Structure formats: structure tokens, C-alpha cells
């Protein structure tokens, strides 16, 4: 098994997906607990939900 096959294995993809999911959930809870307006909270949550990686980068 080559290094490239090891790097692109489903385990790494699943682990990365799980990490992103956990960070998304944390960010959504932080948005909900913030003092922002309801519309602002909704927009942030939609951004994080539809664009998980980009939404996290922009939020933090």
C-alpha cells in the first residue's frame, strides 16, 4: 500500500468529516447563545449549515 493510498483512505475522510461536524455544532451553539438579533443568528446558522468549512472560517 502506497503512501498516497494511506492518505486518501476512508478512515481519514471520515475522521475529518467528524471533526468538521463537531466544530459546526459548537459554532451553531455559540451563535445561538450570542447576543445577536434573531435574523443574524439565522443567517449565521444557515451559512455554517450549507457551507461547513467556509462558514467556520468566516465565523471564527
Automatic annotation (TrEMBL):
One Pfam family it belongs to: PLDc_N
Subcellular location: Cell membrane
GO cellular component term of the entry, any: plasma membrane
Highest taxon above the source species: Eukaryota
Membrane topology category: Multi-pass membrane protein
Bilayer-crossing regions: 12-32, 39-59
Principal location class: membrane
Domain spans labelled Cardiolipin synthase N-terminal: 22-60
Keyword set, alphabetical order: Cell membrane, Membrane, Transmembrane, Transmembrane helix
Protein name: 881_t:CDS:1
Amino acid at each position: 500500500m502506497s503512501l498516497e493510498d494511506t492518505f486518501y483512505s476512508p478512515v481519514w475522510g471520515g475522521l475529518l468529516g467528524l471533526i468538521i461536524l463537531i466544530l459546526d455544532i459548537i459554532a451553531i451553539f455559540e451563535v445561538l447563545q450570542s447576543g445577536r438579533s434573531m435574523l443574524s443568528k439565522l443567517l449565521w446558522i444557515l451559512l455554517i449549515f450549507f457551507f461547513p468549512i467556509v462558514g467556520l472560517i468566516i465565523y471564527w
